[in-house]
Amino acid sequence: MISTIALFWALCVVCLVNMARYFSSLRSLLAVLRGCDPLLYQYVDGAGFFTSHGQPSKQVRLVRYIWDKRYQDHHDEEFIRRCERVRGQFVLTSGLCFLVVVSLIAMAIWQ
Q1: Where are the alpha helices (DSSP H) in 37-76?
Q2: Chain-centre distance of CA 3, in angstroms?
C-alpha cells in the first residue's frame, strides 16, 4: 500500500517544479516584453521584478494584466503566446498549491 506521507511529498515536489517553471516562464515573458513594449515593461517594473527591491504593487499590475487577459489586444504574437502560457501555468500552480494546503490540513486531521 502507498503511504499518504509519500504521496503528500510527491505532490509537494510536483508543486515546486511547477512553481519553478512558472517563474522561468515569467522571466522569459519579461525579456520578450522589454523588446516589444518598453512602456509596459517599465510600467510593471520589469528590471526590478525579481530583485529584493522590486515594487510589489507593480508586480501585481502584471499579474492583473495577465489574469484579465488584457494582452489579447497586443500587436506582438510572441508576447500573446507567452502570456497565455504564463496564465495557464499560474492557474495550474495555484491549483496545486491549494491542493497541497488541503492535503496538509487533511493529514493533520487524519493523523
Answers
A1: 38-43, 56-67
A2: 30
